[in-house]
Specification:
The complex is a heterodimer. Chain A is mainly alpha-helical. Helix content of chain A is about 75%, strand content about 0%. The chains are: A mainly alpha, B mainly alpha.
């Protein structure tokens, strides 16, 4: 009986190992081949680069003119937009949640419907708007555009704020703290679980977003890393092996971010991130 | 008294200032561009200015149901959209099953490892997924090199340029990217199941399979149901980034889903007015689907997701 059960669990674990291998092969392939010269990569694509180890491709990738500026753009755009989203999203949610009247109810639906407007129908007006405000082809423009995407964050905060007691705020008010101070010192720290969830989702979206920079960025010194990869991929790309290194480099920050945030992801989802 | 009232008003005003930045951003980037919907009723050909465009009424809407070429195209696009959505819906139990299996792994480091590896692809842009796909499956990629070296094939197979099995391969990529992430929702739900249930079942002599069958899966069904309804609400929206990066001249016919078709119409072939008309229709149908799915969810399980 016992041995039979053990056998069963063994099969389950083997199955998971299989799934794991399938999921991992693309990463493995990608990483191993960045340490090989092109001819070695073609000859034995899955071999470990023990004899043929070389850093030449990375040197080439890092030396290419646009690499560092793209890297900087990606980091700046992601970090600044997410900070703005968190700041204005949490403030707006707080104000709407704590003051229930006709105006705030209207605003709630105003944001909800704004969230649902399909982007494809408004691309050309959006384009005209961006160039009219001199935000097209600019890093600041991308930041402003992404910052307007904080509806998701707002709804997350809304769901969470309902469960945050008001006693502390009132105590702080009686102690004479003004609204601004009270919000950042008392309320905002309480929102930490949901803030973490929003950061995870938004960093993932913005770092990986391709359509917006593709539409609004035209000069190569303002490219993001994803754009750099997109330009380098395809049948006629001339620097293919170097591209693999760029891909690995794009993966590194987001992987570190993921490993770092991993334990917060499940916690965030259980803390009411998704209704249901 | 008056001072109190003023103070209260001042407080409300300050709260309003808290909302203002977000309010303006949404107004500017979500509502203001809506004037673009007017284009659906005009013969608008960018880059010519809109003031030159002629008013054509419902011409574009009519052309979508009258012009035979458009109908054939739209029919193919709808077939793709429905097929991809149907495959996704039909396999939406997969993440649940995966979560259950994952939970059954008793060795914690191994479980953590499997979960980490399977969730990682979700953090990768579609552009990168395509790049990886390209490096694995292009004519000199790993797959072809291996198959040729093993003598299974003589000539490299052009996997990515093939117009066959496009729905299936796209679903496979989607699953590779999403499986682990989608399972997280269920893993969270499993961790919320009362442990006493399992203890009691074990005392009664239940096997592992019986525990899964009678405790774990029934506890996950509400989550499954809500996600299923949300998927139905999104039936027409497959998203476009995935299909945009994977599309090429050879697979275009089978990969073009509604979202991508709208984009291609507007940006590729310059039929901007038609694309807006189509997108408006799509939004209307999507809204109906969402409301219906929400109503079904409310009626059958007493919870809505809107």
């Amino acid at each position: 009986m016992i041995s039979k059960r053990k056998k069963g669990s063994y099969i389950g674990e083997l199955l998971m190992l299989g799934v794991c291998v399938i999921f991992f092969i693309p990463f493995y392939y990608l990483i191993v081949n960045t340490f090989k010269l092109p001819q070695d990569a073609t000859a034995s694509p899955l071999a470990l680069p023990i004899k043929t180890f070389t850093l030449e491709l990375y040197q080439k990738a890092l030396a290419s003119i646009n690499f560092w500026s793209s890297f900087r753009n990606s980091i700046v755009i992601t970090v600044v937009s997410v900070v703005i989203i968190i700041v204005i999203g949490s403030m707006a949610s707080y104000a709407i949640n704590r003051r229930q009247n006709k105006l705030t109810r209207f605003l709630f639906f105003y944001f909800l419907i704004g969230f649902m407007v399909p982007a494809q129908t408004t691309l050309i007006p959006l384009f005209n708007l961006m160039s009219g405000m001199h935000l097209q082809n600019s890093v600041i423009g991308m930041i402003v555009l992404y910052s307007s995407w904080c509806n998701f964050g707002m709804f997350m905060y809304q769901g969470f704020l309902g469960g945050v007691p008001k006693d502390l705020e009132e105590a702080a008010r009686i102690d004479g703290a003004n609204l601004w101070k009270m919000f950042w010192k008392v309320v905002f720290p309480l929102l930490k679980p949901v803030t973490t969830t929003i950061i995870i989702f938004d960093v993932m979206w913005i770092w990986n977003d391709f359509m917006m920079p593709y539409l609004f960025i035209s000069s190569s010194e303002k490219f993001t890393l994803i754009m750099e990869v997109y330009k380098g991929v395809g049948q006629f790309a001339n620097n293919w092996t170097v591209m693999l290194c760029t891909m690995v480099i794009v993966l590194i920050p987001i992987t570190i971010f993921y490993l770092f945030m991993q334990k917060h992801i499940i916690a965030g989802i259980t803390s009411g991130a998704v209704k249901g | 008294m008056k001072l109190m009232k003023d103070k209260k008003k001042w407080h409300s005003f300050k709260l309003f200032l808290f909302i203002l930045p977000f309010l303006l951003l949404v107004l500017l980037f979500s509502y203001y561009p809506l004037y673009g919907w007017l284009y659906a009723f005009y013969d608008y050909r960018p880059p010519r200015p809109f003031s030159d465009a002629e008013f054509v009424g419902l011409k574009w809407f009519k052309s979508l149901v009258e012009n035979p070429i458009k109908i054939a195209q739209l029919w193919q696009v709808l077939k793709n959209t429905f097929a991809m959505s149907a495959i996704t819906l039909g396999t939406s139990w997969l993440p649940m099953l995966f979560a259950v299996f994952l939970n059954e792994i008793k060795c914690v480091p191994f479980r953590k490892f499997v979960q980490t590896v399977t969730t990682l692809p979700n953090f990768i842009s579609w552009v990168l997924v395509y790049s990886v796909a390209f490096s694995l499956f292009n004519s000199t990629g790993m797959m072809n090199t291996l198959l040729v070296n093993l003598g299974i094939i003589e000539k490299p197979i052009l996997f990515l340029q093939s117009s066959e099995h496009v729905w299936l391969t796209q679903w496979l990529w989607l699953t590779w990217k999403n499986l682990g992430w989608a399972a997280i929702m269920y893993i969270a739900a499993i961790s919320g199941i009362d442990d006493e249930l399992f203890q009691a079942a074990k005392v009664d002599g239940a096997t592992r399979m019986q525990c899964i069958r009678y405790i774990t899966i029934p506890s996950l069904l509400p989550t499954f149901f809500v996600l299923l309804m949300m998927n139905i609400g999104n039936f027409l929206s497959n998203g476009m980034e995935q299909y945009y990066v994977f599309q090429n001249a050879f697979n275009k016919e089978h990969i073009q889903v509604l979202d991508l078709y709208v984009y291609n119409l507007a940006m590729g072939s310059g039929s901007y007015s038609v694309s807006v008309a189509l997108s408006m229709l799509k939004s209307a149908v999507s809204l109906v689907l969402l409301v219906v799915a929400n109503a079904v969810s409310k009626a059958t399980r007493g919870e809505s997701f809107l």
